[in-house]
Specification:
Length: 342
């Protein structure tokens, strides 16, 4: 007993030798966002966008026929070629399998006038992939939506190509086949088109912007699947409705809230372009601000600028302030704010 008290180590039953090392925890420290749902891969998200765009593609093929097929097909093929070329120049492996380039070409094709010259789609795809994506380091590093970068480039470089006459579905008047888009008609002469054609898609415009119904169907699919942050389009629709509703009360106009929501590419931009997870805010509050800011800018450009539609520039401007919105809306951690280092 005395010996065991004098030497307690000897009284233990543990075997002699060094203790076995415990396995280190599999912990990876990385910057946000942190996605816990492993099935939400880039490939799956891009496939969701492609599936969600099918209603828009179907309406565009019905309204614009071969024009729509040509623009969408050429934009997608050009985006794939541009991605392969630029990735090869960086001596990286091919990234075509994630379908991000396919989505860029698809969104670009849907945002181009149907009868635009062929080089508009090609140049826009190369500019969008090169200047909007690869120059920043590739997918996940870009701060601007690549499709909108490409469209802005060709719109500035080839402004006349965006004013050409387009083919429309049978059943519309000759004025609709050769006249201006609804927003251009509003800007130039104050004309108010019927609401049903704007909602269903029997109106002039870019390939994917004519049908508010198709944009809603595809957008709701993206939100239900979790691919698109539902707060962004919700904030955009609410802000546009409140602003145009208040404007109608102050200055009554034939253009109702529904006209502003359905005309142009507002819904297409809110659901398919603004919700790009790379170039949109990460926080819930930031997404509300982001969507509302988009609606404010679109309405300001429609009313105050020389452009009949302001979706493209509004998206790019909101992309530019996304880092600032993220900084403004950092959530408070559990247990209180982190103390500042001195």
């Amino acid at each position: 007993m005395a010996e065991s008290l004098a030497n307690p180590v000897a009284s233990t039953s543990a075997p002699a030798g060094p203790a076995p090392e415990e396995p280190a925890p599999a912990l990876t420290v990385a910057p946000g966002p942190h996605i816990a749902y492993g099935a939400l891969t880039t490939r799956r998200m891009m496939l969701d966008v492609i599936l969600a765009s099918l209603p828009l593609v179907a309406v565009s093929l019905w309204v614009f026929r071969a024009y729509a097929a040509f623009q969408i097909g050429l934009s997608v093929v050009s985006a794939l070629v541009a991605e392969r070329v630029f990735v090869a120049l960086r001596h990286r492996s091919s990234t075509l399998g994630d379908f991000s380039a396919t989505v860029t070409g698809l969104i670009l094709g849907l945002s181009i006038p149907p009868a635009a010259p062929w080089y508009v789609s090609v140049v826009g795809a190369f500019a969008g992939i090169g200047f909007g994506k690869i120059v920043f380091g590739g997918l996940g590093q870009n701060i601007f939506n690549p499709a909108m970068v490409g469209r802005a480039f060709v719109m500035i470089a080839f402004p006349a190509a965006f004013g050409v006459a387009t083919y429309v579905a049978p059943g519309l008047s000759a004025d609709a086949a050769t006249g201006a888009t609804p927003l251009t008609a509003l800007k130039m002469s104050g004309e108010t088109p019927p609401l049903i054609p704007l909602f269903l898609g029997l109106a002039k415009g870019s390939v994917g912007e004519t049908s508010a119904l198709a944009a809603l169907i595809g957008g709701l699919y993206l939100c239900i699947r979790g691919t698109a942050a539902w707060r962004i389009p919700t904030a955009a629709v609410i802000a546009m409705s409140l602003l145009t509703g208040a404007a109608s009360l102050i200055h009554p106009s034939p253009w109702t809230v529904a006209h502003h929501l359905c005309a142009g590419a507002f819904l297409f931009g809110a659901f398919f372009i603004l919700t790009d997870p790379v170039s949109s805010p990460l926080t819930a509050r930031g997404q509300w601000i982001f969507g509302a800011g988009y609606a404010v800018l679109v309405l300001m450009m429609r009313v105050l600028s020389g452009y009949p539609e302001g979706v493209m520039f509004s998206v790019l401007l909101m992309n530019a302030v996304t880092p600032l919105i993220n900084r403004w809306t950092v959530p408070v951690p559990v247990g209180g704010p982190v103390p500042e280092r001195k």
